[in-house]
Specification:
single chain
Length: 225
């Protein structure tokens, strides 16, 4: 009588399954391949729980076996996505849904991290057999001489995270046009309470300010020294 691992790989007893070892071994290899694979799972709809399962000895109905899980679809309520309790494995979970609602990734009976309503990002997690642990939330500082990006670097949520701190500032900032906008804030600036959107641009002899709301343009008064 065969038994199965928590990820559904068949463990065959010596002398059993006469004439089917080839088929069963190939299935086991396909299962191992799926463990490093990718699946796109739509969780579109209102408040609900989507169960990702693992079927013993089969690659079908086994979304929870994949390493990379992309969650997609338009969600109109908070979502919960579960994987089996007993498994021990890692996941890369991409919340690619649309809609301002939370998405929790957890085991059936345990706990797990939650993507906020504005977090459409990626979490690196693992299951310890009881709960889902968010590794990406516990990553420390990145120690390196230089970080080079070939694409945009975006915060995980709007107006939530800082670049530097009051006692730990960047030495120099090199940038092109500077875009300033506080229109998304609940309160305006501390001077008159208003909100605005401005762009600072460089000219050959002057520095210009553009009011993006009124489209008015200003030249900063500079004094040569």
């Amino acid at each position: 009588m065969s038994s199965y691992t928590d990820l559904g790989i068949e463990l065959m007893v010596t002398g059993a399954n006469d004439g089917t070892w080839g088929t069963k071994t190939n299935t086991n290899l396909q299962i191992i391949n799926q463990m490093q694979g990718y699946v796109n799972k739509s969780i579109a709809g209102g408040v609900q729980t989507t169960t990702l399962a693992i079927a013993d000895g089969s690659t079908t109905s086994s979304d929870a076996r994949n390493l990379i899980i992309e969650l997609s679809g338009s969600i109109t309520g908070n979502q919960t996505v579960t994987v089996p309790d007993s498994i021990e494995k890692s996941y890369i979970v991409y919340n690619n849904t649309s809609g301002a609602h939370t998405v929790q990734f957890k085991t059936v009976s345990g706990t797990g991290p939650t993507f906020s309503t504005t977090d459409k990002g990626i979490k690196i997690v693992y299951s310890n057999g009881t709960n889902i642990i968010d590794v990406s939330a516990n990553l420390g500082a990145i120690a390196t001489g230089q970080i080079t990006a070939t694409g945009n670097i975006l915060p995980g949520a709007n107006d939530t995270y800082d670049l530097g701190a009051s006692g730990n500032v960047w030495q120099n900032v090199y940038t092109g046009d500077l875009h300033l906008n506080n229109e998304h804030k609940t309160e305006g600036n501390i001077v008159d309470g208003s909100k605005g959107s401005w762009t600072l641009q460089e000219g050959a002899e002057d520095i210009y300010l553009i009011n993006n709301k009124s489209n008015e343009k200003f030249r900063l008064k500079l004094e040569k020294i």
